[in-house]
Amino acid sequence: xxxxxxxxxxxxxxxxxxxxxxxxxxxxxxxxxxxxxxxxxxxxxxxxxxxxxxxxxxxxxxxxxxxxxxxxxxxxxxxxxxxxxxxxxxxxxxxxxxxxxxxxxxxxxxxxxxxxxxxxxxxxxxxxxxxxxxxxxxxxxxxxxxxxxxxxxxxxxxxxxxxxxxxxxxxxxxxxxxxxxxxxxxxxxxxxxxxxxxxxxxxxxxxxxxxxxxxxxxxxxxxxxxxxxxxxxxxxxxxxxxxxxxxxxxxxxxxxxxxx
Length: 260
Prior knowledge:
Blueprint: H1 13-23, E1 25-30, E2 33-38, H2 39-42, E3 67-71, E4 76-80, H3 83-94, E5 98-103, E6 107-111, E7 116-119, E8 123-127, E9 132-137, H4 145-161, E10 164-168, H5 173-183, H6 194-203, E11 208-209, H7 210-217, H8 220-233, E12 236-238, E13 250-253
Parallel strand pairs: 9-10
Antiparallel strand pairs: 1-2, 1-6, 3-4, 5-8, 6-7, 8-9, 11-13, 12-13
Helix pairs in contact: 1-4, 3-5, 6-7, 7-8
């Protein structure tokens, strides 16, 4: 699929990875100017801090829906081009291993042996161990051959420089509905006052219903936003897959040992 100088049948993987460093180019924005260089020369750029390489726009009759999501991880807005991308952004924002997110970070350029190609991945993600992940979002039933080829090329480029590559489809609907609800309480201010958060972690060391446990801590109007923030952060746990959260949903403190 790729035109690599020196490709040989049966060559070790390392040969192809080395060739990919020159076969792919990255074009990214620097101070409002698009700069294009080889993958090998620029893979270590802090892409989590670059501007998107294209605008987020939508048409009245189009299927996409662009917007900006306030990321608690970034403490800033991150763009998306569809509801599916927005949902993946929420999940990335909740992931404790993710420390930074950038949308549409660069154009990846390559030649497929017939024509020039380019693709802008949906997200560049910086991980807590210093590694990187490229995330492309597309529902499985909306994949076409051109998209599959673009994702395949992107995955190859990622492997060449030691990045992870993830193709993200539709998340499970009940799980996503629960996480969307919790995302309303993602901001750090929802964890205050701190004594309420500490008391909730203490109360839920023994699993009990959400509503009952909140009542043991104090006025539910004050307690519930803190409880939802702790569920968002993972400090408190509940079953987000088995059904939509209810007042009697069982909640417990992360790390508690109990028999379900």
